[in-house]
User: What shape does this take?
Amino acid sequence: MWTCKLPGAADGSLSVRRLPVGSLERQALACPGMALVVPPEGSVEHQRIGQSTGFSFLTEDVRSLFEEWSRRGVHFPLPPMEPSWGNGQARYAVFEDADGNSFSLIEFDEATRTLEAERRAQSARLEPERHAARELAIAKQVQTRLFPQHQPPIRTLVYAGTCHPARTVGGDYYDFLDLGSGRLGLVLADIAGKGIGAALLMANLQAALRSQCATAWEEPERFLRSVNQLLYENTAKGDYATLFFAEYDDDTRKLRYSNCGHPPALLLRGDDSLERFGATCTVAGLFEKWDCTMEERELAPDDAVLLYTDGVTEALNGEGEEFGEERLLETTRQHRELPLPELLAAVADQARRFSPHEQADDITLIVAKCT
Assistant: This one.
């Protein structure tokens, strides 16, 4: 560190201190509004530190400082000038001290305004993205609350569900409905599309299902027709959902179901035999005139029902091969003795690891095991 004496301070001089490289000290000068600018490490200017006696000071107002220092005895050979690259506002002035060290004052007010304008413009360009990110975060929180927060108690059935959206929010939906009198509703749906639009349709479906579920056990076909009508009336033309709806009776162990254009549910019997619950009607929400049918199966201890969306079976590997039903069954059988949440995690993980690409579709599963 060294000090350069300029006329005008209390002792007849102004102190200019040369600071160590990298110092962030703001009071490089005894005059307010001025600071030394340290060039980036590794730059040509940085390498010249200590090799030159020339210094540049940035200030907001060269003319005011020029007049002040001139009154205090600093000799400027020329008045403040506008550089050839200026626009009539930026100025600079040069002077030397008695030791031959050269100094320059450079006005940075215009540069600051330009940079600030660019910063604000960039911030304005990014604001829609930040706003969308905030909206997505809120939508994710809301959507998380749409999934079941508790499980109705059933003596003869253990069950679990999981959903892994491909994006921040998704269009897959699962639910467990308390139908009263020891009866449970199992719902798995796949909304057409992805992202916010699919999430909004999912919310409509959830509201329709929960608001109408009081009629589900006695009149399941009427219940599903009502859900279809609500979807049809409250969504855009062409929007729809595949839907698997099942009712389980705790006393009889009977399962009634309707498959509305959804991938077939898989029933793994205790003896390892397999049954598929294929489509019984078309997708929900697409047509105003719509009807469905219910089918029934009786479950026995150790029977397991697996429901899934096509994001599981249609996951692609690097060769364009689908994960498929066979791999789904193989993984399920391999982990069948695990607690159900761990079984679902293993299946979802296997499907995601199968594809080397970013997850393309939501992965959602329900498993229910008779005890």
Observations:
- Residues 1-34 have pLDDT under 50 and may be disordered.
- Residues 147-370 form a domain with the Phosphatase 2c; domain 1 fold (CATH 3.60.40.10).
- Helices lie at 44-47, 62-71, 109-146, 195-212, 220-234, 310-313, 324-334, 340-354.
